[in-house]
Design a protein that fits this description.
The structure is a single chain. 11% of the residues lie in helices and 41% in strands. The protein is mainly beta. The protein has two domains: 174 residues, no CATH class; 192 residues, no CATH class. The strands form eight sheets. Strands 14, 15, 16, 17, 18, 22, 30, 31 and 32 form a nine-stranded mixed β-sheet that branches. Strands 7, 9, 11, 12 and 13 form a five-stranded mixed β-sheet that branches. The longest helix is centred in the middle third of the chain and has 13 residues.
């Protein structure tokens, strides 16, 4: 291999990490601290040659003078109130003897609504000539829209710059990935394949999608026996058992026979509402829709929050008594956003529940073909391959409006062994897959793989 070939591809990584320690208004008497480190780890003779702060506004100040040495730049900042901002000019110099092209920019950032981080001055595809320099300008701003003390006071921002010899650039692209905390573990947010995604429908919520993402977690002594569904906007972690616990009816024969459930079919098959409510409306304006009072929790609700809950022996103190939603789902719904709103019409605080129909749809990475009830129904044979929740026949907690030819007080959404999102009467014998929320301050170790699952480190009882 010639020397020229050996030099033809050169990669330089520029990483900027910001850690916000405290965020507060001036009236709180505290400040926002920003710490950052920028490094380039390669021998291509591309160096950081200067770093300076500029355009500080309002209460923004340097906590210390920005410094740099060889491949590392360091800066620390105080921000006091919303609207405060400061910029950093980081000079990158090509001190080598051949031109370099910026082939790719990869951005990884922790999503924090209190902190806005932007950059300018570099673009994928531009050439950094030998002997010349370029300036990356980074702006850190306390979000003007914040009106109360934020819960999350830390953020990270990393930029990886890939340089190649001029003429060798192929990608010339920019990709952006957020970083969020799952427990205390930093996890990249992806936009394709298996992994953690930003939820399109609920801001601040993140969901695991794909055929087999790294979302395994140990709970109740069951090593890798559970999986993470979502990190909620309130920072709780929603998890479900990775295998079916047992088969039983959602609500058996003649369990509830009054109010909403007072029909001949309901008397025969039970009732599809998860929890007691004074008036439940299962799309009563539609054909065969029903409304009325529900005077009992479902049999499955009583079992999970009684017998099963009492038998949990490990990590029980990590369980958050959380809202579970049990509003109705329209048969073969084509609007997932509207479906989620319908599901959230009714809620109850439980220690343990089940997945909702939308949880199953949102776990599918093939949104184009499987992202709504109707799309899933039309492509159900392939949709199971991109959804890790396909684990057998089991119940959801979503009542079903099933059309003119069945009784909507007895029909509930379930998942079948082929991954089919379907419905059945509540007296059927299907699998139970418990779902819980872990408290917002739960700490984790591990990486989330089946071989190295997340483990709860601070709630062990």
């Amino acid at each position: 291999m010639s020397d020229k070939t050996k030099r033809s591809i050169v990669i330089v990584s520029l990483c900027i990490v910001l850690g916000i320690m405290v965020v507060a208004y001036a009236v709180y008497g505290s400040v926002l601290n920003v710490n950052g480190t920028t490094s380039i780890a390669n021998n291509f003779k591309i160096l950081i040659t200067k770093i300076e702060s500029k355009n500080a506004t309002a209460g923004a100040t340097d906590a210390s003078e920005p410094t740099y040495e060889n491949l590392t730049a360091t800066f620390k900042t105080n921000l006091v109130s919303p609207g405060d901002s400061i910029e950093y000019d980081i000079t990158i110099s090509n001190q080598g003897n051949m031109n370099a092209a910026l082939d790719k920019i990869d951005i990884h950032r922790k999503n924090n609504p209190a902190i806005n981080i932007t950059y300018e001055g570099i673009e994928a595809g531009e050439v950094l000539n030998a002997g010349s320099s370029t300036v990356l300008t980074l702006k850190v701003e306390f979000n003007k829209a914040i009106t109360s003390q934020p819960k999350d006071t830390e953020t990270e921002f990393n930029i990886d710059l890939t340089y190649v010899e001029e003429g060798q650039a192929k990608n010339s692209s920019t990709t952006t990935n957020d970083i969020i905390k799952v427990g205390n573990k930093s996890v990249y947010v992806v936009t394709e394949g298996d992994g953690l995604y930003a939820d399109t429908y609920e801001p601040g919520r993140y969901v695991y999608k794909g055929g087999n993402p790294d979302n395994y977690i140990t709970f109740n002594g069951e090593d890798a026996g559970w999986r993470i569904i979502a990190v909620e906007a309130d920072k709780t972690i929603k998890i479900m058992r990775a295998t079916i616990l047992a088969n039983q009816a959602f609500d058996p024969y003649k369990n509830r026979t009054t109010g909403y459930c007072a029909t001949a079919a309901s008397s025969s098959w039970g009732c599809n509402v998860w929890a007691t409510t004074k008036e439940y409306d299962n799309n009563s304006t539609l054909t065969n829709g029903i409304k009325g009072s529900v005077d009992k929790d479902s049999a499955l609700n009583i079992y999970l929050n009684g017998t099963y809950y009492n038998e949990i022996s490990h990590n029980k103190n990590a369980i958050d008594n959380h809202l579970f939603y049990y509003g109705p789902v329209i048969y073969q719904n084509t609007d997932l956003s509207a479906q989620i709103m319908s599901e959230q019409k009714y809620s109850v605080r439980n220690n343990i529940g089940l997945i909702g129909a939308s949880d199953y749809l949102r776990a599918n990475s093939n949104v184009l073909s499987c992202g709504t009830y109707k799309l899933h129904y039309d492509n159900r044979l392939s949709c199971k391959d991109t959804n890790w929740m396909t684990i057998g026949n089991y119940w959801t907690m979503s009542p079903h409006w099933c059309g003119a030819n069945c009784n909507s007080a007895t029909s509930i959404v379930r998942i079948d062994v082929a991954g089919h999102l379907w419905h059945y009467n509540t007296g059927g014998n299907y699998g139970v897959v418990p779902v819980i929320y872990l408290k917002f301050d739960t700490l984790l170790s591990g990486s989330g793989t089946e071989e190295d699952p997340f483990k709860i480190t601070n709630y062990t009882q």
